[in-house]
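Dear colleagues,

I hope this message finds you well. In preparation for our joint manuscript, I am sending the PTN23 phosphatase (Todus mexicanus) sequence together with its predicted structure, so that both groups work from identical material. I would be grateful if you could confirm receipt.
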Amino acid sequence: QSAVNVPRDFEGCSTLRKYFGQLHYLQSRIPMGAEQEAAVPITWTEIFSGKTVTHEDIKYEQACILYNLGALHSMLGAMDKRVSEECAAGAFTYLRDHFPHSYSVDMSHQILNLNINLMLGQAQECLLEKSMLDNRKSFLVARISAQVVDYYKEACRALENSETASLLGKIQKDWKKLVQMKIYYFAAVAHLHMGKQAEEQQKFGERVIYFQSALDKLNEAIKLAKGQPETVQEALRFTMDVIGGKYNSAKKDNDFIYHEAVPALDTLQSVKGAPLVKALPVNPTDPAVTGPDIFAKLVPMAAHEASSLYSEEKAKLLRDVMAKIEAKNEVLDQFMDSMQLDPETVDNLDMYNHIPPVLMEKCAALSVRPDTVKNLVQSMQVLSGVFTDVEASLKEIRDLLEEDEAQERKLQELLGKAPAPQGSSPPPPSSAGLAEVSKECSKYMEVHEKASFTNTELHKAMNLHIGNLRLLSGPLEQVRAALPSPALTEDDKQVLQNLKRILAKVQEMRDQRMSLEQQLREMIQKDDITTSLVTTDRSEMKKLFEEQLKKYDQIKVYLEQNLAAQENVLKALTDANVKYAAVRKALAEVEHKWNTTVQTLVASYEAYEDLMKKSQEGKDFYTDLEGKAAKLLEKARAACQAAEANRQQILEKEMKKQPPPRPTAPKPLQKKPPELEAGAGGLDTGDLPPLVSL
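The corresponding structure tokens are as follows:
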């Protein structure tokens, strides 16, 4: 009811649009078309003949609503200020392009063409007037005016059609005369401004012919304007004053001053129109215009099937895009793996400016224990002292035993016993006490030798770590100075910066690719066109799919650009990596030294407690061994004294058993007489007493 009795204002336009949209939603669900099950008779009155026309087709209802929408727009346009280039042609154009022309004669193709071009022409007139008031360039104004002429020429052709003439009757003649008058008038305006342009370009001959042509066309317009309102006549007279004045002035100047040849009009380039007006669009499914679909819950099975087909189209699009992305990602991953370049640690220069946290922790721990090194040195000194005492005691015992052994050997020789052959075992100790001492000493010596090796290793470890502990206990500046750092030239730094810049580009490319992929997936997931499918004819489904899939074109372009850039980025990275090779080797060596130094210092800190523990264990061990060695030394001294006393007693007894020695014969003062020579009857030598060796 509201659409039939629509108010003559913009609210009325809104009502017509909403009703038209809801009819579109309805006809896509309910079979109300011609010869369909739910078709009902629809009756409207033709505008020109006054006859009533009835069709059992919901599309006829839609067509009549569209026609009235265009008519209402044209009425509102006529009442509005002439400042807008929007026009009522949109409704007539949609009606012409989407509905049959056989419903009624006022919806014939020629009538709709007439309405469309009349609306466009009048809208272009508004734009022309605005351009002239804004003092736009003459050539632009001429082109806008020429387009007005083109629109009206199309309208005139429609008016000259026999069907149109018979339908419109007397109106046809009046409209045709008015349209023709406008054609001449706006052609005159176009040539007036072409003459102005020629004047600006100092083409005075062209200026004369354009002004003359404008004057001729204006005279034709004046002839056709008989019977028009006084406002039209006044406009024509004003225009005549302008064009006439321009023509007379231009002709006079050229005749007396410039003397340029006046070319024929047909030798000059024709003015091409500039269509700058736009028809108000008609979109029956725009919710901002039609409001919510009141039949939204009625979704035909065909729409569900079509939605599934569209989902497959989206899936195919995603598969195609993902295949390209995955192929490029695989190449990129393999390339980066082969390069072994981590953007975060490509130079590690920053780490050399700071003491690592693990080392800072050790320095902090030692700062609250200032006697660490002192305690370790004292522990080493105590251990060394005890070790020396033990070794001295064992040496003295060994010396006592060796002395006793030597004395025992002399005694045996005095008693006439043969000495032990070279290399044989030493003689047994001279007493059971010394034998026990010797056995104990050997055992202690063996233990001492084993412990001595351990003690030596412990001292080496202490000497190794004590310097590091002193460093960690000192100022942090010294610790930092002790850590290695790279010495890079300016060229080396430039190589590093370039490599890091390209690696950042690689990461940027990755991030952008992931972002675009995510956007594409989200768009596809949210893309539901079921509502549009409901209101779309099956024959138009493929076209609708193509139009809907165009929404992904922009993001596909971005992805293609991203993928195409990969080759250039990787080439640049390869070149940068070649230059980085020498710097990389140097940095790797410094980093290895740095890590080794840090690990060594940490190891020294962690070894401190172990060293102190082992040092204490060594002190305890040697203290115990020292006590045992001291007792054994006293025992050895006592045993040696007893053995020495025993040897003295044996020696004395042996001396008593030996007879006193005879005196030896005095040495003769002269040579023996012959008779005393051996074998000459002297004394038998066998009668001499034996020589005793004491």
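For the figure legend, we might mention the following. The mean pLDDT is 81. The chain has 19 helices and four strands.

With kind regards,
E.M.
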